[in-house]
Amino acid sequence: MITGVILSGGQGRRMGGADKGLQLFQGRPLVYWALERFRPQVDRLLISANRHQTEYAAFGYRVIGDSLPGYAGPLAGLHAALSVASDEWVASAPCDAPFLPTDLVARLLTGINAAEAVVAVARTPQRMQPVFTLCRRQVLPELTEFLASGGRKVEQWLATLPVAEVAFDDATAFENLNTSNQLAQFELDKR
Hints:
Blueprint (H helix, E strand, L loop, with lengths): L1 E6 L16 E2 L2 E2 H9 L5 E5 L4 H5 L4 E3 L9 H11 L4 E6 L9 H12 L3 E5 L4 E9 L3 H9 L5 H5 L4 E5 L12 H10 L2
Parallel strand pairs: 1-4, 1-6, 4-5, 7-9
Antiparallel strand pairs: 2-3, 6-8, 7-8
Helix pairs in contact: 3-5
């Protein structure tokens, strides 16, 4: 059994302070597209959001906020999900990735089991995609300690654990629409 979490808890600095997950793309909020692609891959789904929780709850999934103050980043959202999940596995994806692979979780699960790791992370030919992860719930104590020590970078936390990097050839599947300009450009490209 796998709990999924869509990470929507940021400040949206690169989006001019707007809540990224609620910005429209092809007539629907960005988070809608991420939910559509991620939902069939997991048994339960959470949305990590620190703002506009009522709007996120309207999608029909449990909304959780960070237990750490001050918008501590995607690791804080993962921490919140691991803290409430009852399943052995927790998978994460960001709210601003409308093209995420429909086989993401299955491939991460195969990779983590083959490597006997505690975390699997997607890797495209260009780079690691650190917020597209699958982890065992047992990593919660290590993540709690990392965050308590002031750690915030996903890559730094991953470097402390047995990690399976799972190769994906299609880098566009991991495209994050972080800025208004990127959102507008992809909107034009998809017409």
